[in-house]
Amino acid sequence: TGCGSSGSEGGGGGGGDDAIVMGFSQVGAESGWRTANTKSVQSAAEKSKITLRFSDAQQKQENQIKAIRSFVQQKVDIIAFSPVVESGWDTVLKEAQNAKIPVILTDRAVDSKDTTLYKTFLGSDFVEEGKKAGQWLVEEYKDAKDTVNIVELQGTTGSAPANDRKAGFAEVIGADPKFKIVASQTGDFTRAKGKEVMEAFLKSTPDIDVLYAHNDDMGLGAIEAIEGAGKVPGKDIKIITVDAVKDGMQALADGKINFIVECSPLLGPQLMDLAQKVLKGENIPARVVTEETTFDQEQAKAALPTREY
Ligand code: GZL
């Protein structure tokens, strides 16, 4: 087919006579993180001269399955996607495997037992992110004697980041009985839902000390709810979030958030590099973990002027 795909990974019809064609199924456009991630993938494809066929699943698994099936029909050279939830992928991934089209997981993981269904998983260690959030809280309250009441805004139900950020956080704070998660519910990674659920928490839970939100967007929605209830975010209720997108970092610098665990969306360049290696038949690691850090309020002020996303 002469479209850059080597024998063993044989894909089908490409773009020009040698451009790699990548089918990419994106979760949606639910958060600032997702928008930055999409930009990174699209610009990296352009720079690598990879023809990108991009589909936005509006956070619905059935739309991602349809998109992957369509990429198989189109005989793309390679498929990459960020699975909105962890389960339910084996059938469609087997169809891609039978069509000899390699698959790369990016951002989120799947729970398939058969790891031959994809070439690698490029993305963050979400358990580690949850632990970093917990470690900050343990340090922040190390001298506190009273119970610390925590409410948690979880990410999309069934998604790897929601499952793992919850587990990592619970593991660290579980070491000290003074930490109590008094309410925990999904805000689906969106600002609107985060605000709605936080309003409910404020009504049902009289004494909230801390909010742990699995992403900045839900944290920003919660800030609107907290201020609407006449309380001061970052002071009356301490807030920890994950992502470190610009809006979150601004709230951190303004003192409305207390700590942010970074989750980098800038996966595009690594994804295109891995795709080219796969199609050349080169060996690639089964797991590529994203480099990322954490920010307190002072660090956010320093980082904001040059923040890429
Ligand atoms: C994490 C990513 C999550 C972000 C959210 O890698 O899947 O999805 O933390 C985004 O902001 O919606």
Structure report:
- With 309 residues, the chain is α/β, with parallel strands linked by helices.
- Helix content is 39%, strand content 19%.
- The protein has 10 helices and 12 strands.
- The strands form 2 sheets. Strands 2-1-3-4-5-11 form a 6-stranded parallel β-sheet, with helices on both faces.
- Helix 7 links the parallel strand 8 and strand 9 (238-243).
- Helix 2 (61-73) runs parallel beside helix 3.
- Keywords: Signal.
- One of its GO terms (molecular function) is carbohydrate binding.
- Residues 24-282 form the Periplasmic binding protein domain.
The ordered H/E elements are: EHEHEHEEHEHEHEHEHEHEEH
3D shape:
elongated
Give me the count of strands. Answer: 12
What is the tally of helical segments? Answer: 10
Q: Which residues form runs of ≥5 with pLDDT under 50?
A: 1-15
Radius of gyration: 21 Å
Give helix % range: 25-40%
β-strand percent reads 15-25%
* Spatial arrangement of strands, main beta sheet: 2-1-3-4-5-11
Q: Largest sheet, described in full?
A: 6 strands, parallel
The pLDDT mean sits at 94
- Ligand types: beta-D-galactofuranose
* Helix/strand class: alpha/beta
C-alpha termini separation: 38 Å
Secondary-structure blueprint:
Elements: E1 21-26, H1 32-47, E2 51-56, H2 61-73, E3 78-81, H3 90-98, E4 103-106, E5 120-123, H4 126-140, E6 148-154, H5 160-173, E7 179-186, H6 191-204, E8 210-213, H7 216-228, E9 238-243, H8 246-253, E10 259-262, H9 268-279, E11 287-289, E12 294-295, H10 297-303
Parallel strand pairs: 1-2, 1-3, 3-4, 4-5, 5-11, 6-7, 6-8, 8-9, 9-10
Antiparallel strand pairs: 10-12
Helix pairs in contact: 1-9, 2-3, 4-5, 6-7, 8-10
The structure holds beta-D-galactofuranose (GZL).
The site of beta-D-galactofuranose has 15 residues, from helix 1 and strand 9.
Keywords: Signal
GO molecular function: carbohydrate binding
Organism: Nonomuraea glycinis
